[in-house]
Amino acid sequence: MKRPRHIPPHRQRGQTILEYAIVAGILATMLFATFPGADRSVVGLLIKAFRDAWATYSYTLSFPL
Fold it and tell me: By CB count within 10 A, which of 7, 28, 38, 42 is most buried?
């Protein structure tokens, strides 16, 4: 039976950083890129939803009690 080859910790760390950078780049692209058929990115849609919710909330607060 073969013994598993020992990988030095500094090489494992380098691989982890590379994997993290790739995943972070893909997520950033997905969040900020506009997709075909959509006029806004996911972040743009989220910001619009917060603005609409705040407008509704502030309108409700403007009524006298």
Answer: 42
User: Is 3 among the domain residues?
Assistant: no
- Supply the mean pLDDT for the chain: 85
Say if 1 falls within a structural domain.
no
Q: Does 17 fall in a domain?
A: yes
Tokens of 29: 């692209």
pTM of the predicted structure, to 2 decimals? 0.57
Spell out where the chain has E strands: none
Express each pLDDT in 29-53 by its tens digit: 988 998 778 788 888 889 999 999 9
Which residue matches tokens 């959509």? 38
Tokens 């994997």 locate to 19
Residue with tokens 């409700």: 60
Structural domain count, the chain: 1
